[in-house]
Automatic annotation (TrEMBL):
<dbReference type="InterPro" id="IPR035472">
    <property type="entry name" value="RpiR-like_SIS"/>
</dbReference>
<dbReference type="GO" id="GO:0003700">
    <property type="term" value="F:DNA-binding transcription factor activity"/>
</dbReference>
<dbReference type="Pfam" id="PF01418">
    <property type="entry name" value="HTH_6"/>
</dbReference>
<dbReference type="GO" id="GO:0003677">
    <property type="term" value="F:DNA binding"/>
</dbReference>
<dbReference type="InterPro" id="IPR001347">
    <property type="entry name" value="SIS_dom"/>
</dbReference>
<feature type="domain" description="HTH rpiR-type">
    <location>
        <begin position="1"/>
        <end position="77"/>
    </location>
</feature>
<dbReference type="InterPro" id="IPR046348">
    <property type="entry name" value="SIS_dom_sf"/>
</dbReference>
<dbReference type="GO" id="GO:1901135">
    <property type="term" value="P:carbohydrate derivative metabolic process"/>
</dbReference>
<dbReference type="InterPro" id="IPR047640">
    <property type="entry name" value="RpiR-like"/>
</dbReference>
<dbReference type="InterPro" id="IPR000281">
    <property type="entry name" value="HTH_RpiR"/>
</dbReference>
<protein>
    <submittedName>
        <fullName>RpiR family phosphosugar-binding transcriptional regulator</fullName>
    </submittedName>
</protein>
<dbReference type="Pfam" id="PF01380">
    <property type="entry name" value="SIS"/>
</dbReference>
<keyword id="KW-0805">Transcription regulation</keyword>
<keyword id="KW-0238">DNA-binding</keyword>
<feature type="domain" description="SIS">
    <location>
        <begin position="112"/>
        <end position="249"/>
    </location>
</feature>
<dbReference type="InterPro" id="IPR009057">
    <property type="entry name" value="Homeodomain-like_sf"/>
</dbReference>
<keyword id="KW-0804">Transcription</keyword>
Length: 266
């Protein structure tokens, strides 16, 4: 497991200052190879001792060892000129897929497919860009004949979570795992007996505590958060996998084809 995986998997165990260090690495990891522990502590607003503890918590012997691992892990991003843009975007997406592929639990995919098939109603919670991903998931499942709703309004989320039942499936999407509206609504859904699923980047995040099935996807911000590139790509990759497994079912595949024909012939 490389250093960025270690940081992502351990993120929920970090203290506030340790999370500041993790966030700095996530955004400016390439700068650390040329900075001293004193200067880094000053820039982040912490102490050298905290940085050393952080390094040891993620399996490094020292700050220097952490710098070496980060340097070995960093992939050079092509220059963003007319030619480099195409290579940079390809490299970004390719790295997100490769890292997400290593994190996704195949058994969890089979479990969620089983729950989707037997649910009376499916509700997908997400705000912001996660809400847009929820809409995409809703459209796919609708075309397979499922009763599914995507909810991105915080008030509607709370209302819906208070009336779900044990026959329903609730899916919460939050890359950070700490989106309060989604966390609260998933907790309420679980209290009401609904089967709950979380999709996040951090294993020990709040949203995971209220999930029967947990999916961990790679956080694209660990690769590059400075450019306007889709931060939901790792979740979309997971959605593609779930969709493909569902469509192995002949009945669901036939329903999908019916909706395709209906659109073509309309």
């Amino acid at each position: 497991m490389d250093i960025l995986y270690k940081i992502q998997k351990t993120y929920g165990e970090f203290s506030g200052k340790e999370r500041d260090i993790a966030d700095y690495i996530m955004q400016y990891g390439d700068k650390i190879k040329n900075i001293s522990i004193t200067d880094l502590a000053k820039e982040i607003g912490t102490s050298g001792a905290t940085i050393t503890r952080f390094a040891k918590k993620i399996g490094c012997n020292s700050f220097v060892d952490m710098k070496i691992e980060l340097g070995a892990n960093k992939i050079e991003v092509p220059s963003i000129d007319e030619e480099g843009i195409f290579s940079a975007a390809y490299q970004y997406y390719n790295e997100v897929i490769e890292r997400t592929k290593m994190l996704i639990d195949k058994e969890a995919i089979l479990k969620v497919v089983k729950e989707i098939k037997k649910a009376k109603n499916i509700y997908i919670y997400g705000v912001g860009s996660s809400g847009l991903t929820g809409n995409e998931m809703m459209h796919r499942l609708l075309r397979m004949g499922f009763s599914v709703h995507s909810i991105s309004d915080s008030h509607m989320m709370i209302i819906n979570s208070s009336i779900v039942s044990e026959e329903d499936l609730v899916i919460g999407i939050s890359i950070s795992g700490e989106t309060q509206e989604v966390v609260h609504s998933l907790r309420k859904s679980k209290e009401n007996g609904a089967k709950t699923v979380s999709i996040t980047s951090f294993e020990e995040s709040s949203i995971s505590k209220y999930s029967d099935i947990k999916f961990m996807v790679y956080n694209p911000n660990f690769i590059d958060r400075s450019r306007f590139i889709n931060t939901q790509f790792s979740v979309m990759y997971l959605l593609d996998l779930i969709s493909m497994v569902l469509l192995k079912d002949t009945d669901l595949s036939n329903k999908m084809q019916i909706t395709i024909n209906a659109i073509i012939n309309s």
